[in-house]
Design a protein that fits this description.
homohexamer; 318 residues; alpha+beta; OB fold (Dihydrolipoamide Acetyltransferase, E2P); Hypothetical protein af1432; 2 domains; five-stranded mixed beta barrel; two-stranded antiparallel ribbon
Chain lengths: 318, 318, 318, 318, 318, 318
């Protein structure tokens, strides 16, 4: 079975894929004919596909996020690859394929990631800080198992957010060793809380974001997390204007560093500076890693990466 | 008695003034001598002043925010007016002067302004919105009687914030008449809440800001108000993620319009757009009015105004 | 008869519409066939439409700005609605439809708007200012009855410019009441003159701008209006460098506030500051109103609005 | 006699200088004493100077733009040279010094420059263009003999504007030879008109700008010149909206290239593009030349030049 | 034979053209058919073209950069002209057409341009500077005969780079006459070296750039030229950190003036300032000239030009 | 003996200090008197100091970078601490103080740092890369023992550059563990080379930068390092345009990430992205650490830090 990432022009292939998008459209011909405009995906990438001359049955059979068996031909349309579907049918139980094999996900299992996050949380000495962090994590506990860290920018896959958090926690631990003036409780809390509202900011299924939620648009994950910290304090009987509460809110509010990047205040605590630069380092390197990973080994250059000044990455092998 | 605004170079004068700042410094002479570096103020403006050869008694007698009787001479130092003090003593009870006569304040009394704000609040139909607004106003009720709207930018005087709110409410009412699609409840609430955290963001006395508070620096008035709305909802038993709560938070969070001006989200409700532009119009016109008001009638140009692209304003009388 | 705004995918409909654009094109088929690429419009919006297999007669029958009777089917093409025309013929006299019913226009009649503008002009006390304003209005008197205020940004419809002026005059009157230091003559003149050259900057028919004029491109409406004020002064025997003439030119030249927004000088008179912010407030609220008005009631969000930081507007109903 | 440019720390010197600025100030001592705060200048540069213990007679004797004989000592104050005056008296007739020897001026005499400009004007073939140019030059004919091209930026000296125009005309002639598609009439007219309103935008004496005029602030030289072209057309009976009139206005309006640099429209004619880049090249090279000229030969680096990205210029002699 | 520039909608024509691009594609029809997607070019411009129903032989016959004889029909597709090919065959020897007649090239022959560059190089007095320049020119001697100065921006044709250099050298010579403080050796060297690495930065054939080279992307022509100067010095036994070597590197490194335009340092020598502004003037005027030249005489406006603030140029004929 | 960092207003103290700056100045008195304007420093900070009534002997006795014994009084001048010197004499051999005790330096000894750097260099597998790195390090071997990493921004002290390199190498090693796709040779080489030319870009003594060198201004450390890599390749017989040479140059050239921050190309290799963000993280955290370290423990806020968006850092102790 051929992986999406390996398909090239003029390939004829058979395989199982995920239908990421399904839309009924009409051709320009007279009279216009219905066809299905699809996106085929697996864990290695995705490709647009057309099922010309779709029958009424076809139009009822296929739906987004369903698994299918496809026989197809790869063609070039406007300089991009596109699949012409020769045969297609829904996957059956006896085919033995399962959805989770077809989605991109973090290289570590969600369970392990969540376990690590809980361990770090338990290691926060300050009881009030720990309880506030636990309250906020509790709000998204379930979604954290699959939420991506972003729509497209970085860690945009199943478990991406938890993976990003764990990597940042490792880096934070290393830095606390290198620079003992950093307060480990604050840095841990900051790392766990900084993107904690993302699962409520975006509507995602299986790690794929379909849109921003109403709250995501009107309030945004940065202010949502700040509000959650206030809610946590009030519900836990902690003074919502105590310095440590402000400190946690400051870490969250300032982690995008600049106003034009979405932060209403700029970092003014050592841990806030650390948090922003740890976040940047991890996100940017992940963009590079993901781009290299989804680009065929035969290509010297990845596609352009929006989050890296729109530059492509070159594989130099000295 | 001569008003600060009327003093010109080489004037010799006697009058009562407020000591806005008092500092003990040393001259460059050998041996250096102590002198008092002062700022004299009244409701029309302020001027730096020097008391050369300050005696030990002088150093104990004068303190900031005290009233004094001064005999002085106006001189020019580095192109700016400065008072050389000839005689100075603290004001006495029998002098019959009172502090509030010497500070700049809004042209309408605080009582009246607060009354108007309460009237408008009472006119909010939606009970939950009204209660949330009342909760937030309740947090700063006392300070609202004197808080300025900013450190220097605009409405920087006794009662300036309440005055700004009342003027904006008038403008808001006019616009709701002109454009009935605007929701009056939301616009009223937005106007009252948008700067409601300013009295806690800045430390002010008699309308004069001395510095930003810790919370002001780490969280900022925009996020503080958003957090207060969450606190209000939780304490009042309203769902803190109900659409109307988000809506109020959106109005507050977006009222600076752009990220680089401090807003983590941009206006996405009709009332949010209205709020931002009403705020801008009122603040900018007040800067003009204040500058014209504190510039002697004999001057054609005001000083440069930072909030107006650093431009001075010309009095054209056609 | 179905309004454009109400049409949805798969609707079959009959109705009268305005042909806003008509173009003859060829299909990709071999041999290619001619078809008509059309834009159907009414007062509520517009939609692209195709007449496949256009006959030679068809190609001569239909022209832009003509009224037609159409039987059509709504389809989706690249995520946007598009009409497949089943039958089409020009409207006849006996159909009883008239052009002006099919174009978007200001909610107040041009006559009334122009009347109001004249009334305000007559109320300008300073004779020279009034005459200069009258001279400039005289240059576009006729076009003012239908000119839009912009190509797409705001008030982009029949009578939009006059409507924008009248709304701004109302707001200006309110502000002169709130802030008596504003000179009413200057503010009225500024509001009437600020966009007065727009009807000559853009080529428009029935409120629809087709392109910028040569003068619009090379000189621009801001400098055109400044030149007209000079011309008025010279022709009326007023010194073209008198302070009041400069003042009027300053109001016009500075009304976009910043150089990057097209103003060669920044506001330096109280009325110039007021003019800019009145203009901004009215234009932005109109963008919101127009977007809400042309978005079906069933949609919670309007499309993105370029003049509002590319944000969509949400209808929050608390 | 020692030139300003040659004075170094601890020099004692005698010579004639121009008093560019004179101000009476008071020392910090008790009681404060009057002293004169002066700026001494000659054609090679300027230095601040102090006359300590100024007598009442001194205060009446010295005034700006007067010539004086000075005996002084050069000292360092806050890292900058400053003259302590030992003796000073006004220059007398018998001293045989004259004002114009003490001011910086263009290296070619004003007469010659004006003559060249007239010659070029006479060479404009198109009668209407020539007459409009003549009308505008006529407005500032007298001031053109001494007006500088800017307050400090470039060509900031006696005759600087005419000198800038002549150099640009030479460069324009060269380019018309290199690129025959350029219209020489338009380019000549554009070069002569682009800064023609500067003598009315700034108040200058002997090539030294003291301030901007009211019209300079409210309208600015770019729009002033555009208005003058309109005035010229009206007074000369030429249609003020004829293409060639617009063309001339376009050249003037667009010559700063970008809105943030003061141009309300961007260059859209070949000659407008040429005009902007000729202006830039000549102004920037003159800044370099002036900086090298006023820096002692012994210095490798000039001071920082604001118009050249705040960079200093190094004299590399290979 | 009809030139590309002269073709208009519905023209039927026969002529010889260059195949600038050739791609095999499939139509949307069922089953899809192969067609050739072509770009026809000559020295006056280029047009997209389609050969519908391409035979297997067709697919093997036509290749990029080949000459063909075409009978075609001009149509409009999405508002742009496009050729429907009726007949096509490769050019034969007996047709007597040659490749170089079909490409855009500088108006002066490469031979002459290279000759002029060598003459100027020989005129550099300083032996070390001359040798370094010769070394760098030697690296691209052959490619200089055809290299364009840019991919699309300006001088994007056969010999464009050498032509740009020669024009700049003429302008440099004129300026050295006007301003004798400029060092002619440095200015000549700077002009020759500033873009000398461009032939290695971009991969070009017959003046047409297909892509950037690896070195072009990773190092860029500015740093490449700086490195070449170091290499030249080392290989020629000149101290690579001698002031004159730094000077040459400074000229190259600073010639884009600002960091955001690619220069790691800003101009800090008189000749560096001159170089940047000569480069800007020549490049911008060439953009204008090229746009006017490739726009039919009947058009008043050229297309928009990216390098000129995205403005079109108007042909004003007074 | 009191450390600079511990001195507060009105303290009288005795101790040994480093004279970081010494300048002879004159008072404003009549006649003016000479005084010494000094900067006292030790490893914890620095303070301005005045020796009033300096004798001729004083003026000859004290010089920059000398050690002195001082009795002084701390005063406040313009809101900043300043020392009035009561007694001062040069340190004598028998005082037993040595220069290196009085300068700020990295917390790890230069020897150790250099040793670590050599160890890492030896661990580079690719022979050519290792030799190029060694050649470049060899150029500044001696200066690396004391060179700071910047003038004021970060690591501005004795050994600061080597310290920055070592910390970055540790971080780089950690990341290579976390993300095995990173090439360790390239990342090590990039970290060592990225600022390797700084010791030649700035003139420094004991870790204190006095000014930029000529090469530092005209070429800059980024291009200098790129040129050195070329020189290394040529001298070592390696092709200067081999991919691995380009790769090293790319790492150096792109490490400031953006053009406006001084990088002529943007990161396009995984290791280049890592290098930039490692550099940013280490530099920013060091700014925080240095500011906290030099701020008295009693202060809650550090001074504003230019490299951190001009924000001060708050010590939150939860």
């Amino acid at each position: 079975m051929t992986l999406i990432k390996q398909l090239t022009n003029q390939d004829e292939f058979i395989g199982y894929y995920l239908l990421k998008e399904v839309e009924i459209k009409q051709t320009n011909s007279t009279p216009p004919k219905d066809y299905l405009d699809l996106v085929l995906a697996d864990a290695t990438g995705e490709l647009p596909a057309k099922l010309w001359d779709a029958s009424p049955l076809d139009k009822e059979t296929f739906f987004p996020m369903g698994l299918v068996k496809v026989k197809g031909l790869v063609q070039t349309y406007r300089d991009r690859l596109q699949v012409k579907i020769i045969q297609i049918r829904p996957a059956k139980t006896e085919d033995g394929v399962k959805l989770t094999d077809f989605i991109r996900s973090a290289p570590i299992s969600s369970k392990e990631l969540i376990h690590t996050i809980h361990q770090v949380m338990n290691g926060i000495f300050d009881t009030e800080i720990r309880k506030i962090v636990e309250f906020c994590v509790g709000k998204v506990e379930e979604k954290l198992e699959h939420a991506p860290a972003a729509k497209t920018h970085h860690h945009a896959y199943f478990g991406g957010l938890a993976y990003h958090m764990v990597r940042m926690l490792e880096l934070g631990e290393f830095l606390c060793g290198q620079r003992p003036f950093l307060n480990a409780d604050l840095l841990k809390a900051g790392i766990i809380l900084h993107d904690i509202a993302k699962p409520e900011e975006m509507v995602a299924q299986l790690g794929i974001v379909s849109e921003y939620s109403l709250q995501g648009k009107l309030v945004g994950h940065i202010s949502m997390a700040s509000n959650w910290i206030t809610e946590a304090a009030v519900r836990l009987g902690i003074d919502p204007e105590a310095p440590k509460v402000m400190g946690l809110q400051h870490l969250v509010l300032s982690h995008h560093n600049l106003g034009e990047w979405g932060s209403p205040v700029q970092p003014q605590m050592a841990e806030a500076v650390a948090l922003h630069y740890i976040d940047a380092l991890d996100a940017k390197l992940q963009m590079v890693e993901d781009a290299l990973h989804t680009t065929p080994e035969t290509e010297e250059w990845t596609p352009m990466i929006r989050g890296l000044e729109n530059k492509a990455i070159y594989r130099l092998k000295p």
